Each structure stands twice: as C-alpha cells, then as structure tokens.
Amino acid sequence: MPSSAPRRPKQPKKQEPISYDINIPYVDVDKQSKISTKYPQYLPSWDPIWFEPLQPFEYEDPALRVRNKSKPNLLPPTAKVSHIQPSLGTIVENVQLSDLSAAGRDELALLISERKVVAFPDQDLIDAGPDAQESFMRHFGKPNYQPVSGSMTDHPAFHIIHRDGNRDEIARFLQQRTTTTLWHQDVSYEIQPPGYVMLGLLQGPEVGGDTVFAATDLAYKRLSPAVTAFLDGLKVTHSSAKMIAHARLTGGLVRKDPVDTVHPLIRVHPVTGEKCMFLNGEFITRIDGLKDSETKWVLDFLMNHLVTGHDFQVRVRWQPRTIVMFDNRSTIHSAIVDYLDDDYGAKARHIFRLIALGEKPIPVYEEDEDEKDEEFE
Ligand SMILES: O=C(O)CCC(=O)C(=O)O
Ligand SMILES: [Fe+2]
C-alpha cells in the first residue's frame, strides 16, 4: 500500500529525457499543461510517493468461478462477437463493461483467458472517471504501483501512456535502436505479476498506434518435446533493477526499490491449464544453472520464435473509446509507434493502463518446500 509520507529524499519531478522503454513515453512535465488533450485529468504526473515491496497475497482467478461457459451474463443475444484471428483476439460490441454484474465480470475473466486479447469499442467506462475504472479492475486482482513512469495524482495505480505528437523523443530513441517495437510483459519482476490488464484509449490517431500481441502458450506448443522438456524445468530471474537504475541515473522519479524475483520460465495458466512461456526482453537477468552466453542463447531463440510467429499473433486496431483487456500470463505485447512519421503527420495518443496482479506463477516442475509461499498478508 502507498505510505502517506515519502520515506526517501525529495526526488526531481522530471522524468528521464530518454525513455527506458519506448512503450512508456517521456513527456516534459513543464510543458504538458500546454499540450492539447481531450482528457487533461489523465495527463501523467510524477508525485513522489513511496511504495513498500509487494507482499504475498491470496489470489483466486475470477474465471474459476464461472459455471456456464457460454457466458450469459457477459454476452447477451444482442452482443456482437467477432474474432480478429482464429486462435486469439476478439472484438465485443454492444456490451458496456460498466453494466456488468459480478457474474459478468467473472465471465469476462474467462473470455480473456480463452481469447487472450479482447477489445470493447466505444465504452462509456472511458468517461466514467478514474474511481469507476479502478473499482472495475479491482474485481480481477490487486492494483499495481509502477516504480517509474507517469501516473495520476491521487490514483497511483494508473500508468499513463501519452504522446503529444512530438517526434523528438522517438528520433532520440531511434539513434540507438532500429525500431520502436519493444515486446514485453508487464511488471514480470513482481512476486505475483499481472494477470489481467486493462488498456483504455482516451485519444488516438485515426490510423496507426496499434498494439500487437503474441500468444506464449501457442508458441510453446510449436516446440519439440526435446526442447520443452528442457525449458519446463528452468527458473528465471526477473529484475526491475536496470529500469530503476536508469531512472535514477537520468534524474527520473522512482517510487519503489528494485525487486529480483525467480519465476518458472514455463508457467501453467490457472484457467486454461495451458503451459505458457513467461519471458520478455526487458526484465530477465539470468536463468538458474546456465552461463551468461547460454542464457542469451535460450532467450534469443525464444524471443525470436515469439516475435516472428505471426500465426500466433494478433494486432489490435484501436477504435474510439476502446478498452482492451488482455492476459499478461499467456501473451507478450508491444505498442507500435508508427503514427509520428512525416507522411502521416504527428498525432497524439493517450492511453491509461490498469493492472490486476494475479497468482504466483505456477511451475510445471515440482516446487521445493521453501519456494512455496504459505504466508499471506
Ligand atoms: O501503448 C500501448 O499500446 C501499450 C503500452 C504498454 O505496453 C505499456 O505501457 O505497458
Ligand atoms: Fe505493456
């Protein structure tokens, strides 16, 4: 929980001049009041709040409460359901998330577990304000407080993604990199990482700024038994240290100490029972028992497999007031920053992210006694 008085010395208000992660844009806080936005309340703020480390907590996936798999509380006969790809990604129209009962929200968790990425265009929840949005997400799990990056004053669970159309930051980022695409899983370093994640589009370009997702369970199924037998037993360290060190070095605000957590490389999805690869290019520092070059070899192979397999990917095109809910356990994702090119004209893109933290990742291997967390807060 947030502590009211910051424990740390006062930190500079400015965010780092070059984002560590292009998915988390830098906005000059001195200028942001002048930026035109339809949702000024959602412009990022950097308040010096300090958060203690996340403690273990009990988690039951709401999808496990669903008895009627046809989801009558979520999908009445008037709902229009269309799939983006055969194996993942669904668009649901004529349903307002704000109207869902508790049973409807449980069924939504099941739909997200099954389809991994679900888009709901034209949601009045977008205009219902931060309290309503947070309370909706609370059904799916505990909130997350991001250690760095822009949030909202009095609503620290919000993570704000805002680009005002300024191309300079992208140009600086691209001095070091060949693309803005940055595949990742959200907050994988926490002891209980995000399960369900909500992205809400406040403002976006007419064309471009899609978000792309890859299914880590479908990708796993493509591997041979010899490879999966090796992967199933691996333990991986996820760390927020590099991201936090980068923020500190560049004068950015930090709200939490770094955490290093060992997770299984392959985790079992609590709802579908599928084996999901739990990895990303951002936060992994080592694989237990492997040498550095071997860790790199495994990660390079798996990341390449995930990002090149378009047959288990989906690309979401944002329509106005869309809310996307996705499963952070069975997917990896990236924003696509393609809407700032000269040919298209610079455009603003403004999204909020709310996270529901889920279960401690369930390994395929038998856990040692000391790895099992018995104590919950
Ligand atoms: O902007 C997007 O489409 C995704 C943003 C994202 O992945 C993040 O902020 O974690
Ligand atoms: Fe993300």
Describe this structure in words.
- The chain has 377 residues and is of the alpha+beta class.
- 19% of the residues lie in helices and 21% in strands.
- The protein has seven helices and 18 strands.
- The protein has helices spanning 102-115, 130-138, 168-176, 216-221, 225-231, 241-249, 292-308, and strands at residues 2-3, 50-51, 80-83, 90-93, 117-120, 159-163, 194-203, 211-215, 235-239, 260-264, 266-268, 275-277, 284-287, 313-316, 323-327, 331-335, 349-357, 362-363.
- The strands form five sheets. The protein has a seven-stranded mixed beta sheet, covered by helices on one side. A three-stranded antiparallel beta sheet has the order 14-8-16.
- Strand 4 (90-93), helix 1 (102-115) and strand 5 (117-120) form a beta-alpha-beta unit.
- It is globular and about 50 Å long.
- The chain starts with a strand and ends in a 14-residue tail after the last strand.
- 41% of the residues are buried.
- Residues 13-19 have low confidence and may be disordered.
- The structure holds 2-oxoglutaric acid and fe (ii) ion.
- 2-oxoglutaric acid is lined by residues 23-24, 159, 161, 186, 199, 211, 333, 335, 351, 353.
- Fe (ii) ion binds at residues 23, 184, 186, 333.
List keywords for this structure.
single chain; 377 residues; alpha+beta; 7-stranded mixed sheet; 3-stranded antiparallel sheet; 7 helices; 18 strands; globular; binds 2-oxoglutaric acid; binds fe (ii) ion; metal-binding; TauD/TfdA-like domain-containing protein
